[in-house]
User: Fold this.
Amino acid sequence: MSFPSIDLAKELARIDPVPWDDSELAPLTAHELAVLASIKRGESARPARRPTTAPGRRWRRFALPAFATAAAATALAVVLPMLAPTAATAFTPPPLEYSPIEQSVAEVIADARAQLLASNEGTPSRTVETVGWYVELEPEESDDVVIMPQRIERTWNEDLSGHQIITAGEPYWADPNTTVPVSADVPAEGTVISEMEFAPGEFFVPVVTPPSDRPDELRNTLSALGIAHGGEDAASLIDGISSLMSLWTLGDAQHAALLSLLGESAGLEVLGETVDREGRDAIALGAESLDYAGTSRTVLISAETGRIIGIETARITPLPPLGAGDVLSYTLWKDGP
Amino acid sequence: MPLDDDEFDAIFAATYRPLLRYARRRLESRALAETVVSETFLLAWTAKSRKQEITLPWLYRVAQGKIQEHDRRPDRQLPISSGVSEPGADQSGSVLDRKVLVDALVSLPWKEREAILLTYWEELSLAELAVALGCRERKAGAVLERAKARLIRFVGSGVAASSVVEGVRDVVPEH
Assistant:
């Protein structure tokens, strides 16, 4: 069989979705200068708000890794209004169910801290394992949606080298009442989705020293990770904790310090007792985000150990096709150092 | 020698837009592309004090990692994939159907696809490609050659599958 001899340069230029144009020679725009300024302050800039994808794209998916929950939440805010509303389709995992408890935020945190300081196990480690999920929308399909969690194993070193592997978690239907098996074309649990080696210097971490167990020093570390408002409001603090825990498996003492910061933050409320998506008993605290209107953050505290074992984001207000209460992402950590 | 602020500013001005174009070519969402670029420059800002030479190919290399962190789609299609609908020769005088080419490109292993795109879209030299792929020049050359061969083979298969007879002239639209 003979194959066409093709001019690859010409053919590939023809399908280039973002070809070069003269406007790239223009001076930096105000937005680009703001990006530069934020980078020099050690912060990741937020994307400019603008319409994004063209009509007809089949997939609009937005990853919400712990690394950049806040930034990706902005992407959601930008794009979701463009999606056509659909009725009664489960796009997201069922929300956690809460049983009311009598304790205040301060009492929940005091109890958890007492557990942690009594056990005081573990020290910060640069190896992290998480199981997470982020919203995926397939607007053209009206059938139920399969939730495909992903397991991330990330190890990095002081010289900023590292390794990361992402594998498929166990898929399940968004609608818990669906009884048919998940389609075979969904990646099976354990399927390697990506694997990445980072040479020295390539793994981006603003602070390489192990996190302190002192709340004031931990707040500085969270600030270096880009926490908004100095972490004074609970939701931005939870975003910062998510970023920190995407880099470090913390010891009990650090978890206790994080809980102290949460206790000092504004806007936190007790949601109740729950069972998380790994079947673990937990107490949930929640807060409305000031940065991303209409969304909330929930932090799950292990009833067994007092450690932070999960963080979820959800819609508070409807944003079609998502409804109020729909989960946007979740990340779960193991319940131990 | 570590870069000073002015030198970093100059590098940013020279590389921000090419890097954003790089990310947008690989991600569906412009907002996510901007996040990737911002985080890439954050790393560069941190790295400048360690005397890391900040070049566009090195920034591409860092951005690859950022894209993998952010874009966890199992299939991780290129934005062009969803823009290609029905097969059929276009009117550009090309010898190839767009869909055949896109399908072939998407079928390549990730590293080989990157080698192709970095060479033809980002127009990197072989030495620059080696930096971007994080390997020696000889290996980069081997990856690129293997990628080209595989791409052409895939294209050939796609053309055959489209019931278009073999040979260049057979798939050139009539003018």
In short: Residues 48-88, 138-142 of chain A have pLDDT under 50 and may be disordered.
